[in-house]
Amino acid sequence: MALFQATITITLRSAILDVQGKTVEHALHALGFTTVQHVRIGKYITLELEATDSTEALSLCNQMSEQLLANPVIEDYTVTIEQLHR
User: Fold this and answer.
1) What residues make up the domain containing 57?
2) Helix (H) or strand (E) run with residue 36 in it
3) DSSP assigned state of 39
4) Per-position pLDDT tens, the chain of length 86
5) What is the pTM of this model?
6) How far is the CA of 7 from the CAs of 25, 47, 57, 74, in angstroms?
7) CATH number, domain containing residue 34
C-alpha cells in the first residue's frame, strides 16, 4: 500500500446562488476593492489515505465526496491526488 495526499475542493454549482460569496463581494466593494466580481466561497479538504495506487485513491476520494463531503445536488467537487514518500 502506498500513502497519498488528496485535496478535495468543493464549490456550489454555478447555477446556485452563492449568498456567502455575494456578501463577501459586497464587503470587498465597501472596502474599496471595486474591481472584484463573481466571488464564490467553497470548502477545501486535505486528507491522507493508503491505497494500492493513485487510481484507487481517486476512486475512494470520489466515493467519500459523493457520500459525505459534498452535496451532489448543489455542489461540484474536484480531487487531486499526490503520492507521498515515506
Assistant:
1) 2-84
2) none
3) -
4) 999 999 999 999 999 999 999 999 999 999 999 999 999 999 999 999 999 999 999 999 999 999 999 999 999 999 999 999 97
5) 0.88
6) 26, 7, 11, 20
7) 3.30.1280.10
Q: Which residues contact 18 (CB under 8 A, 6 or more apart)?
A: 12, 39, 40, 41
Indicate the number of domains in the chain.
Answer: 1
Structural Rg of the chain based on CA atoms: 17
Sheet with 75-84, strands from edge to edge, namely: 42-51, 2-12, 75-84
27: DSSP letter: H
Extract the C-alpha cell encoding 60: 475512494
Distance CA 83, CA 60 (A): 14
Quote the DSSP letter at residue 81: E
Q: Which three cell numbers stand for residue 24?
A: 463577501
